[in-house]
Amino acid sequence: MCHEARVGSARDVEALIMLEMWHKQKMDISEFLNKEDRISQPRIAVILPTRGMIFTEVEEVLERERKKHNLTIYRSHDLPIPDCLNVLVSQALNDGEYQYLWFVEEDTVPPDGALDQMIAAHADVIAIKYAANGGFSTIVRHTQRDEILFTGFGCTLVDRKVFDKLQPPFFRADKMFNISISQWQPVDPHKAYGQHDIYFGFSVREKGFRIQQAPGECRHLRLDGLGQREVNNGLHQIGLKEAVTKEYPINMP
After folding, report:
1. Which of 14, 66, 3, 7 is CA-nearest to residue 36?
2. What is the pTM of this model?
3. I need a surface site. Which of 65, 70, 195, 245 has the fewest CB within 10 A?
4. For residue 195, what are the CA distances in angstroms to 95, 110, 113?
5. pLDDT value at residue 176
């Protein structure tokens, strides 16, 4: 069957290809409609940096979301912070017309419906909390203004327009924000941990963007021990970090 259409975008091409597939392969109509609905969704780049391993539960969430949403996953396994983020973000921005970049960490399991909720918020930056060491929330607010200053990147959705306004590198770990004097100070990124998320939070707010919080809480996994080798029941010991029990508000100008 011949179809005539004016192709105005890559999405139009995808739709035409799928229509041809349906006619040629007699694809089940429900399967066709599900795929057609998926490509009508906003294109999303999943930014998934790892240290060389990833928890299966995180992969299961991503596979479920791929059935509903138009996702492309970008992974790293051999880069330190913040290179693992900067390299993947640059690849995604160069590769396609993604509307959102969804940051997911290797040990952070988003709750059911997380991506749908974040997309529906139409936010510049939106995150779901999980616990850092000590049970502190990874979403940090100002004590007086109830403004979110920065957030962790275990489950964070960023609109493409935010990166269009920022200058690379988007993430840095070579300086630390000293809260007591409200100033940035140099730090050795090879000896420090983090700081990239704090830097990003300050950068986006300086450009006039707002960070929001979506409902729910991610499950934060941990590897308690490797399974025994060469036995049938050599499962790894997967634990769960504590849930959020307290906030970490900051009072600053």
Report:
1. 14
2. 0.83
3. 245
4. 27, 22, 29
5. 87
